[in-house]
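3-isopropylmalate dehydrogenase structure dump, as promised
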Amino acid sequence: MTHRIAVLPGDGIGPEVTAAAVQVLGAALPECTFREAAVGAAAIASHGTPLPQETIALGRESDAILFGAVGGPGFDDVTPEKRPEAAILGLRKAFGLYANLRPAFAFAGLESRSPLRAELVRGLDLVIVRELTGGLYFGPKSLEREDGVLTARDTLVYRDFEIERIARVAFDLARARRKHVTSVDKSNVLVSSQLWRRIVGDVAREYPDVTLAHMLVDNAAMQLVRDPRAFDVIVTENLFGDILSDEAAMVTGTIGTAASASLGGPPSARGFGLYEPISGTAPDIVGRGIANPAAAILSAAMLARFSLGETEAAERIERAVAATLAEGPRTADLSDAAPATSTEFTAAVIARCRAESVGARPSR
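structure tokens r here:
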């Protein structure tokens, strides 16, 4: 069966790391076909908009989207809907992608890269489930003078069904892991968080095999640096998830291995998704051949697992990345010795992916 993948390389190092992910995914699953479309600043240059209709149409014809990065200079004074970053918000809305999965994983051999002591992160394996289409980012906004005072207003809005469906994603994921969910909110202050806590608690009763703990967001931020291995699945609203997922990535020692999946349903139900690394456009290293493609490749592994149902291929890719990070070669951001180029790292992953046995469990 052919798997149709829409590739949206975007800006900065996006095209470089996405090309590496395409190579690895193609090696693991030769039945994949890939078609590219413009997005972000590149799309503004070619189409006058960060998210052309042709790009959305390609996504609708595909099983999943492999996304690079968007952003660039010269957009500071542009309204939000005309900035390159508007593309990712538009894609989430167009495809109903309300659940963002952000693994935070301490790969063997990289523990010393963490700002925490190695013994605090060794074996770290958690996932943050972030609600993507509600909250402050999507609520009504205004900037106007009120009684002579220039006043900005962002509105935090959550409806019960939005909380319920993201909670189900978290509990569904936890069932396949260590069966523990931590729901993060600010219910001592925010009415929206009070509803959040109530709805998550209601959903938890349908998953008696999964343990639920509630935690205030300020405490969660502290616990992530005090004892990050205590967490399994964290579920939280849009803004809190945005912040905590980047904190968790840096606890592992590098954002260069931070993959993500944006889904429109529970991970156990194979369906359409958007997959992207979180390393950003990194304009200072564009075209130098030194960008770390690990996060993009790991995002491709998530694509294989959640959208294509190809679990064995996903595990082969993850094993190959883990072995390459542990044994080398590593790119400049992770190497104290002679660094590898992006191409050399990708080639090493592909070689290991082809050599690994299909049925083995990834050793991370």
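The domain at 1-98+264-364 is CATH 3.40.718.10 (Isopropylmalate Dehydrogenase).
lmk if u need the other ones
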